[in-house]
Amino acid sequence: MTTPPVPDDPPRANPLDALLRENARARSELLAALDAVPAARRTELWYGEWSLRDIVAHLAAWQEGCAVALESLARGEPPRIPGFDEAAGGEAFNAARAAEHRHDSWEQVMALLHAARERHEAAVRALPAAVEPERYQEGRTAYRLAAMPGGHDQGHLEPVLTWRREQGL
What is the predicted pLDDT for the residue at 77? Predict the structure, then answer.
């Protein structure tokens, strides 16, 4: 009698799956809030010098940047967000990205946001195969880069909801 073959180890779940689910939940809430705004009002300036379109472009730029940084980290390189200069700070990055997409249509900035999310999620899913688990534990750089979209989306959700209430939207 022969011994049955031992199956390969089943694929392990990505320990970052919970974080990805939280990012998806936050994005879903934000998109629902944005979808409730009439198209004609999405380019109206109300958040300082920004419109909803500017906020979406801003979110896409940061998520894309975090994806690039995670990809760099996975290659063993220092994680860097393209165009971000620590000396200049986040405001300079934000202003540059908003200006870069100021004339994009709503559909264009939403496509950027969607593409950034896909790239970011792929970069997060690749982490366990590329770096040691302790490098993506809570508080570490890889974790912060992976978690950023959920917190960032939530950070913009409340102002959007407040503005909608004030405007009766």
Answer: 95
